[in-house]
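Predict the 3D structure for this chain.
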Amino acid sequence: MSNSGIKRKPAVKRTAQFLRRNAFATAMAVLVIFTLGLYLAYRTDTNPVNYEIGEGIVKIKNKFGNVIWTAESKVSTAPVRMGLSHMNLFCRIIDIDGDGKNEVLISEAKIKEGEHRGKYGLVCMISPDDILWSHYATDTVKSVKEPFIPVEYAIKIIDTVTIDNRKQLYIFIHNNSTFPSAVYALDAGTGKKTGGTLWSSGHICQAGIFDYNSDGKYELFFARRDNGFYQNFLHMAELPLNTGQIRSTDQYRLLDIDYIDLPLTILAPTTDYPHDDIVGGDYLPPLVMGYTTGEDLITFQISHIPYLVNCGFSLKLHKDLINTTITIWGQFRS
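Done. Predicted structure below.
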């Protein structure tokens, strides 16, 4: 007897019937496959997205919170207790070349190769064994007060910005032994210095890069302590930077570097906090400056004892670059 007249159901209908009859088994199979995929991703994901700073070490994590590798660094955990805006000075995770894979910038990291091997500087890592570049500050300056200033600088990360289709990394350095500091840019892909260097006779402690007036051009804002005037200042400089130094007293003027006038200089308000052996003056804690796109333009902080976060004030500069809002936090008097 021929069965040639029997019609087979379409494959789609047969599959649908099978799934209905075996719904539980199908669901379990899908769950197992999904879980296995997550597990494999969890175990094999090596793309850095986050970090954790400890004393002498930086732990690099993937999106699952897994520590995928570590790097040696001289970063102290003291300023780290103050929050992310401080930690970002020491470590930054960015996609430098746009390939979807992040690179890691670590300041005060041990340089493993090249002329400055064994010293501590800024290192751009793909992984601990794959170093894209490293940078060690070698600028030499002198002043009337100190004609022999050692070439020993700590490096802090400000931000990356694209200018003329080139991604640049702005950093500031400050001398480990005495007062000079400077801001300049590195080519983000090579670590080579590019453009001018802006010098200060006193440590730069806070900085940020913003397009404050939405004209498509970026400006650098930074706060610093001037050792000659013994006062705190907030400045704005246009990017890219020109080489020069900010005005100070004759004793602290850096020799052979011309003075440069900046578009904005604001003398930070002082406080009546007691000046004694513990507190020698208003202190600028190190941080990456805050920025909001609303009414407030930029925020920087002044405290009175290094790393004491409950004692000081923040100053918000509005978009007109004239009006300010001061927020007092903590206790001003003991």
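The chain has a mean pLDDT of 82.
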